[in-house]
Amino acid sequence: MSVPSITLRTGPDLLAVVPYLIGEPPADVVAFVFLTEDPQQVGCATYPLTDALDPAEVLPHVQGTLARLGARAVAVAAYGPRTTRPALARLISALRPVVPVAAAFLADSGRCYCLTCDTCSQAIEGVPFDPAATSAAAEATFAGLAAPAPRPDLAAPDPRLQAQTAALLTGMPVPARPGHEYRQLIDALADGVPVTPARAALLAVLLTDHDVRDVALREVLRWPSPVGMWLDVVRCLPDAYLATSGNLAGIAAWKADKPRLACALFDRVLAVHPADTLSRSMSQVMGLGISFRDAYQALMEAQRRDDQR
Asked: Which architecture characterizes domain 159-308 according to CATH?
């Protein structure tokens, strides 16, 4: 992406500029800022940050982005608890043979910690970190950039509709011809027939059929799909039935160029189904800026793994 020229003098400057690159305040992520020969052309990708962060999972994605951008170095900006420092140290050690690490810092509880040394005071005690008070933020504001707002909870469920849908789902059987029923229902909803708890419940039951689910995924991947319809569906669904429809809604939002909405939908699925392979894969794909074409094969493979569980 092309960005205004902003000078990064300190660790807090690096941590403060990343939200402008990814479009939202980061939380529990590690961001990779890819530095190219042109100082106004940078890339930025994020990856979920946990104590169990595995460099072997992250490195192939970083290498792919390095090759696409022709980057000469990378800066690492992490946002999360200090308990993740051992995982970040392993990640930085794995990065160094691949690409120069220009800088690496962690933001936690209003302080900035250096990740490239173990003994300096900034590594041990940290320094105060207030993004709004950094020179990078001042330069960004002067360049006309607005500080990004927190990601809105656009995928929030409606408890009243959830309760109605849950009651209808109790004992609801899968129809004898699920593929036929799905085609009739999804075509009607796509044509503007309102999503009601009864229709959301029937769709949720139909999507428990593997063949129907495969058809639904292929169609959302291949053709434009009404994002509003899928949002209405996931607002109705109780958590037990959320995974498939939530993922389909997220993919529809991604294809419609609504990445923040897509991320919110995948986050909601992972909050109640943390082992869901498809939503986790999609979160990683979007955070790393992988194109839709490159992601298609990965998505189908993730769906097959879910089917085998």
From this structure: Alpha Horseshoe (1.25)
